[in-house]
Design a protein that fits this description.
Helix content: 40-55%
Strand order of the largest sheet: 3-2-1-4-5-6-7
Bound molecules: NADPH dihydro-nicotinamide-adenine-dinucleotide phosphate
Radius of gyration: 17 Å
Order of helices and strands: HEHEHEHEHHEHEHHHE
Structural class: alpha/beta
Largest sheet: 7 strands, parallel
Distance between the termini: 26 Å
């Protein structure tokens, strides 16, 4: 399940995204890498973006293996100029933008713990990447999406669907993203569909502290009916679906991909 090509080889039919150009923020590793490769496997031209040039260049090269053009663009989603340039460079290179995946996100140790100890900086930092980053990219790219009848896919979290203790900034940012998805869906309709995917626990760098703490890991498995962490590629499937015409009447929706975690 680890390697995107394997999952997508085994899929009976992949939607044809060969006429689409997709920007994926946080596309250098983890879930964003898998989404980039999943979209490329469906034929899309992909633009992975993040701050670390070496990582997105590696992913762009991997994605090129599926046959469509690719371009890595360095951008920090907290910087409006970077975000504007990401859209401009994509249009200058490929002539259009059809899909925006707002995936960049983090949950630093400084924003975990007792809510009375949280600094302003820690709160702001989380909201600035996880929530305001999506505002910025849709503000920059929304008109281009309107021209192509494109779509936005926000990578939220189960932390956007339920409350979690001692993670207030992250939970607030992800609930914000779910709300933003609904409001954007109203205002960008009928030209642009806006949806979200809410992953459960996925085996990436972000969740390494949870995977390495046996007590926490076991409590997550106990609550997850499928009894495991997801592989990043398992989040790419819903994103590819939402980017395709198979989802043409779906907007404002958040699809949980959580192994059943929110069933309990
Ligand atoms: P990773 O830490 O593995 O990857 C995060 C990506 O975001 C990296 O490519 C990173 O690149 C990029 N990024 C971080 N900050 C910025 C920034 N300021 N500007 C641009 N890019 C940035 O995380 P995951 O793959 O695990 O998470 C991806 C998304 O999925 C996040 O939004 C996360 O909240 C969400 N999610 C993850 C879950 C999980 O279990 N892993 C569960 C639910 C949701 P760089 O540092 O080079 O900029």
């Amino acid at each position: 399940m680890n390697e995107p090509s394997k999952l997508f080889e085994s899929a009976a039919v992949l939607p044809d995204l060969s006429d689409r150009v997709a920007i994926v923020t946080g596309g250098g590793r983890g879930i964003g890498r898998a989404i980039t490769l999943g979209l490329a496997a469906a034929g899309a031209t992909v633009v992975p973006s993040a701050r670390t040039a070496s990582e997105i260049e590696t992913v762009a090269a991997e994605a090129a293996g599926f046959g469509a053009p690719t371009k890595a663009v360095t951008a920090d989603v907290t910087n409006s100029d970077d975000v504007d340039s990401l859209v401009t460079e994509t249009i200058d290179t490929f002539g259009q933008v059809d899909v925006i995946v707002n995936n960049a996100g983090f949950n630093p140790a400084s924003a975990l713990g007792d809510p009375t100890d949280l600094s302003d900086d820690a709160i702001t930092a989380v909201l600035d990447v996880n929530l305001r980053g999506a505002f910025r990219l849709v503000r920059a790219g929304g008109d281009a999406l309107s021209e192509t009848n494109g779509c936005v896919i926000n990578i939220a979290s189960v932390a956007g669907l339920v409350g979690l203790p001692r993670q207030h900034p992250y939970v607030a940012s992800k609930h914000g993203l779910v709300g933003l998805t609904k409001s954007m869906a109203i205002d960008w309709a009928p030209a642009v569909r806006v949806n979200a995917v809410a992953p459960g626990y996925v085996a990436t760098e972000l969740t390494e502290p949870l995977q390495e703490n046996e007590r926490l890991r076991q409590s997550i498995l106990d609550r997850t009916p499928l009894n495991r962490f997801a592989e990043p590629i398992e989040i790419a499937g819903p994103v590819v679906f939402l980017a395709s015409d198979a989802a043409s009447f779906i907007t404002g929706e958040t699809i949980a991909a959580d192994g059943g975690w929110t069933c309990r």
